[in-house]
Structure formats: structure tokens, C-alpha cells
Write a structure and sequence with these properties.
It is built from 5 helices and no strands. It has about 150 residues and is an all-alpha fold. The two termini are about 35 Å apart.
Length: about 150
Amino acid sequence: METTPDPQAARDALREAERAAAAPFVDYPATPLWYSPAVGAWFTALAAIVWYRPDTKYAIPAMVVLIALVGVFVSWHTRVRGTMPTLTGAPRELRGPMLSYGVGVVVIAAIVIPMGMWEPTAGVIATFALVTVGIAAYEAAYARAARAVRKRLG
């Protein structure tokens, strides 16, 4: 005896699968207040090393520390969020903030790199300000988009 598939059960199963796929992108604790300034400080330190070109006895250890901090960050971020943000597999609502992030990186670089080459102090200050504000704006946009995903998937 054949049974007719239940269309509502199929829709429910698809929604549950989409909810599970979206979970790593939208189910996470709030970003800590220190996050944006910390990212700004990291990029500022990198910019200062590049623009001020300190002696290698200072530059090499500073770069090692910055690289180690990236490893610590990636470990922390993956543990807290369960994933690193990527466009692949991300719910459609998150693509806008993620693409805006990429555009923001290009815009900030286009501003601070020539500025730092012309006047290192101005470049360092601009790097901290623009990266900190840019990361905070991205985090806010991402949080809004994540709320929209959670609402859509109910």
C-alpha cells in the first residue's frame, strides 16, 4: 500500500535542516565590548611596525607576537562562535554584512596606507579609529542580520 507524502512534514523537515545549517552563524553570545578596540589595536600595531620600520631586534619579536595573537584570536573565535564566518553556507541575510566588511577593508586600506606612507603618526591614528569603528559597524550589522535569520527560521 502506498502512502501519500505529507507536504507539511516535508516543509518542516526542510526548515529544520535550514535552521541547523544556520545555527553556527546565528547562535552565539554577544560580541564583547573589548573586541572592536582590540582588533583596531592589532592593526594599529601592525601599521606602526610597517610605517616606522623599527630595528629588526624590535620588529621581528613584535611580528611574532602579532602572529601569535592571530592564532589566539582564531582559537577563541572558533570556540565562541563554533565557526569562522564565510560566505559559503551562510544564510542569505548575512551576505550583505559580509560583503560590506570586504568593501570596508578595501576602503580603510585605501585611506590609511597612503596616509601612513606620508605621515606615519596620522596613519597609525587613522588605522586605530577606522578599524575600530569599522569592526563595530560590521558586528552591529551582522547581529541585525543574525536576528533576521532567527526570526525567519522561527
